[in-house]
Amino acid sequence: MAGEIYIADKATLDLVKADTTTIKANESTIVTNVASVKSDTSSLVANAPINWDRASSNTITNALVTCNVSGQAYVTALQITGKGLLKKSLIRCSGSSMHGIRITVDGVVKVVCNNSSGSSMSVTGFTCEELFQNMYNSLDLVLPFGNGLLYIQNPMLGYPSTTSTAGIVRSAKPIYFNSSLLVEVHSNLNPENIEIENSYIVL
């Protein structure tokens, strides 16, 4: 009859209420699953194999950095904003001065080391490159630097190492940086030119 209003009985209302609760629970599950998918996607992106073909630069540089500040303050030798890999950052150590290097990855200091051997044929810094035995003295190890080879007279240090210890920080793989890389050097002489060699890839 026109004008009549149907009022559901209690059993029907309880059923509707139960269905509504189920829908809300399913919505919550969907939201949770979407968040999980987003998290998994981010993890897949972060751990995806590096596409070397997309590298914007694959660079090996050998340069002189002038240290003309007192108190062994650090000066910038290499600064990169972006994502990439650092394979080597080494400085040649002269016999008349104390050299040091500091490497900051994504705003966090990861390498601090120096040289105390007093030899201009020695190096300090970071590398993941293969080392070679000196053909004239099997007790000596050497590594590529510039157009030749330099002796490793400092002890090997594991990565990361931030204790300002004399040595070379060595790793089985390059240092990956996600947003920034900063390499700094210092000398106890003022002024002095420090020879530094970097090998890096910017993605």
Could you explain the architecture of this structure?
It contains 1 helix and 15 strands; from the N terminus they run αβββββββββββββββ. The mean pLDDT is 77. Strands 1, 3, 6, 10, 12, 13 and 15 form a 7-stranded mixed sheet that branches. A hairpin with a 2-residue loop joins strand 8 and strand 9. The protein is an alpha+beta fold.
User: Radius of gyration over alpha carbons?
Assistant: 29 Å
Q: How many distinct folded domains?
A: 2
Poorly predicted ranges: none
Strand count, sense and closure of the main sheet? 7 strands, mixed
What average pLDDT do the residues reach? Answer: 77
Run of helices and strands: HEEEEEEEEEEEEEEE
Cα shape: rod-shaped
Discrete helix count: 1
Q: Helix coverage percent of residues?
A: 10-25%
Features:
rod-shaped, about 20% helix, alpha+beta, five-stranded mixed sheet, about 200 residues
In short:
The protein is 18% helix and 49% strand. By secondary structure, the chain is of the alpha+beta class.
